[in-house]
Amino acid sequence: MNEELLRKAEFNRRTFVMTTLAAGFALAAQPISAKTIITSSQGLVAGEVKIPVADGEIPAYQAMPAKGGPFPVVLVIQEIFGVHEHIKDVCRRFAKQGYLAIAPALYARQGDVSKMTDIQEIITKVVSKVPDAQVFSDLDATVDLANKSGKGNTSKLGITGFCWGGRIVWMYAAHNPKVKAGVAWYGPLTGEVSELRPKYPVDIASSLKVPVLGLYGGSDESIPLASIEQMKKILKEAGSASEIVVYPDTPHGFHADYRPTFRKEQAEDGDKRLQAWFKKYGVS
Questions:
Q1: What is the DSSP letter of 186?
Q2: Phi and psi, residue 226, nearest 5°
Q3: Could you tell me the domains of the chain?
């Protein structure tokens, strides 16, 4: 049996755990803050789309202006809670600024985390089982969909992501040199190497060609300052265009307006830096 037949046979034996996006916020992210930002879809085309991938299709949330195009494309990479309401809202914010923003459900095969109530359960049962190679392939397919839709200008391709997705920003920027620029929000820079995650941002920093802006919190207990300094040192020695900004006395998740970790001033400053970064490197 050839490789193509094996692939089809494998797909026939399984169905994706998550065939459609979850509604609302992930249970593990509750309770939701009164400061939560809700962006209207008025003037936009926004909703779920399906992305054809190597072994079927995965759901994604997409938002873009209702008129005009093709638009610059921004890949929005989910935080640990998956493509829940906050990530959808981020896509709508980008769409209001003239982008086609799309957030694929990158652990659709491994499980639906929206109903899990414990972060450790999400990590153990789902996130730990997601291979980097699968993520990169799915993001390649997402870019291809945006391009074929006629509404996305993938010659102006940007990427941004949060937490789990922040690490993916660094890694996908190394994988796909066609990305014009990336912005990584508090993504882990070091970690335990495995077959599924053979490298971390510090391992690709010296050869990184795509300019990535890293936005980090100085009091983030999950990302040691030592790892940030290590990353900065490697980037500087390599003469990289990538930069890292550290906000003093700022926790992990400072962009997440639906959580207690939200820091309005730092989040707004980060958003301004993102827009300037995208403009500088030809995304917008």
A1: S
A2: -60, -35
A3: 15-280 (3.40.50.1820)
Task: Give the start-end residues of each E strand in the chain.
Answer: 44-53, 56-65, 71-77, 100-104, 152-162, 181-185, 212-217, 243-247
Over residues 199-219, mean pLDDT: 98
CB 278 within 8 A of CB 182: no
DSSP conformation class of 61? E
Classify strands 212-217 and 181-185 as parallel, antiparallel or unpaired.
parallel
Structure tokens at 230: 């290590």
Q: What whole-number distance in Å separates Cα of residue 18 and Cα of residue 58?
A: 8
Q: Annotated catalytic sites, by residue? A: 163, 220, 252
212 DSSP β-pair partners: 182
Rounded to 5°, the CA angle 153-157-163 comes to 140
| Residue 73 tokens, joined | 């494309």
Residue-wise pLDDT for 133-147, tens only, equals: 999 999 999 999 999
